[in-house]
Each structure stands twice: as structure tokens, then as C-alpha cells.
Design goal:
There is one protein chain. By secondary structure, the chain is α/β, with parallel strands linked by helices. Helices cover 15% and strands 29% of the residues. The strands form 4 sheets. Strands 1-4-7-10-13-18-21-24-25 form a 9-stranded mixed beta sheet. It has a 7-stranded parallel beta sheet with strand order 2-5-8-11-14-19-22. A 7-stranded parallel beta sheet has the order 3-6-9-12-17-20-23, with no helix packed on it.
Length: 232
């Protein structure tokens, strides 16, 4: 019984919400095509956060803590994505595109309100990208492109505590800030504490843990500035 309750607590804000959310998704998450998109728009809208706008959701998308997920106008979520909210909410701005297989997660056991995932308007979250913040906060500006398989995660573990196992070590998050018009390349990784300036580009496969100035291209492991981008 205790294990069952713990399971539910990781997926919804309460027992009633769990059955309501899972029931709605069981009913219509599988329906393909425009008919399914329309049915989900009508049913899911009532389950997302109070100020959420109607989202266009393809078949096979999975949601947890739906009342902690908020969409701006015109948000599209492609098939086989998972959005897992918590007390640290997921807030997507107007006209965001979340492409096939992307995973957005603000759930951790010690999540903090206001330190989830927030995006601006007109962002593109690429195929199989991972965005995670339940502590620290992941803040993304407007018109940001996030490439396929990019990983943007605020969390870390206190690995200096060698008296504890890796599982037991304390989890904590450090904020990530990504400015407007940034491009995060395919297979790149952005770690807690990173700040990426406006109009900057993170090259494919780079690992970013520090500051990337505006109007620059950064690449490598660890990432460093490769060149500047000329302003018009």
C-alpha cells in the first residue's frame, strides 16, 4: 500500500487527480490524426493549469501532474513526448513546438515551486530533447531553437559526499538561463549554472557549464567561444 501511494505521489497531486488524469489519457491519448487532436484539445484543456490555453497534442503523448503544466496560445506537442510536472511547474510560451519524443520534467523528490521550466514564445524543442528542472529553474527566452537530442538539466548530486552511495547523495539544482534567439545544437548538453546570451549558438555536441556571451558561437568539451557573430 505504501509503495502504491508513493507511486501515485510521483505522478499526480493527489489520488483523485491521478485517476482523473490517467482516465482521460487512457480514453483518448491513442486516437490518431486530426480527430484525436481535436478530442484531446477539448478534454485535456480542463485538466491543465488554470491559465493554460488549449494545446494541440498528437497521439501517444504522456502527461503527469497536468495541473502543473501551463501552455500559451498555439502550443503543439508531437507524438510520444512526455511532460512530467510537479510543484515546480512547466510553463510553455505561445507557439512553442515540442517535437517527437521530447521529455520535459520538473519532477524531483525535493522540487521547489517557481524553479521548474519556463519558456518564452516561439521556441522549438527538438526531437528527443531532454529539459529538466525541479530545482534551480530553467529559463528560456523567445525564439530559441533546441536541437535533436539536446540535454538541458539544472540538477546535480553532491558527489563530494563519498561516505554516501551515488543514490543517497543530495540532489540540488542550479539555475540555467538561455537568452532570446539562441540556438542549442544537436546532441549538446547544458548543465546547471550555465548562462547563454542572446543570439548565441551552441555547436553540436558541446557541453556548456559556464557563461556564453551574447552574439557568440561556442563549442567543444567543455564549451569555449569559437568566434563572435557580427551584429547587423
Amino acid at each position: 500500500m505504501e509503495l502504491g501511494l508513493k507511486y501515485i505521489q510521483t505522478r499526480a497531486s493527489g489520488l483523485g487527480r491521478y485517476f482523473l488524469e490517467r482516465g482521460a489519457q487512457l480514453l483518448c491519448s491513442w486516437i490518431p490524426g486530426p480527430i484525436g487532436v481535436g478530442i484531446r484539445a477539448a478534454i485535456y484543456h480542463r485538466l491543465f493549469g488554470q491559465k493554460s490555453q488549449t494545446a494541440f497534442v498528437e497521439a501517444g503523448v504522456e502527461f503527469f501532474f497536468m495541473n502543473a503544466i501551463h501552455f500559451g496560445k498555439g502550443v503543439y506537442v508531437d507524438s510520444h513526448c512526455r511532460l512530467h510536472g510537479s510543484s515546480a511547474e512547466i510553463i510553455l510560451g505561445n507557439n512553442n513546438r515540442v517535437m517527437r519524443g521530447a521529455y520535459l520534467c520538473s519532477y524531483v523528490s525535493n522540487a521547489r515551486s517557481g524553479e521548474g521550466i519556463v519558456t518564452g514564445d516561439d521556441c522549438w524543442i527538438g526531437v528527443n530533447a531532454v529539459l529538466a528542472s525541479g530545482q534551480g529553474g530553467l529559463h528560456i527566452g523567445d525564439n530559441v531553437l533546441i536541437g535533436p537530442n539536446a540535454v538541458i538539466v539544472t540538477g546535480n548530486h553532491d558527489y563530494e559526499r563519498v561516505d554516501l552511495t551515488a543514490v543517497e547523495q543530495n540532489y540540488y539544482g542550479i539555475p540555467i538561463h538561455i537568452g532570446n534567439n539562441a540556438w542549442i545544437g544537436a546532441n549538446s548538453t547544458v548543465l546547471g549554472g550555465a548562462t547563454i546570451g542572446d543570439h548565441s549558438v551552441i555547436a553540436a555536441g558541446a557541453v556548456v557549464s559556464g557563461n556564453v556571451p551574447p552574439y557568440t558561437v561556442a563549442g567543444g568539451v567543455p564549451a569555449r567561444v569559437i568566434r563572435e557573430i557580427q551584429k547587423n
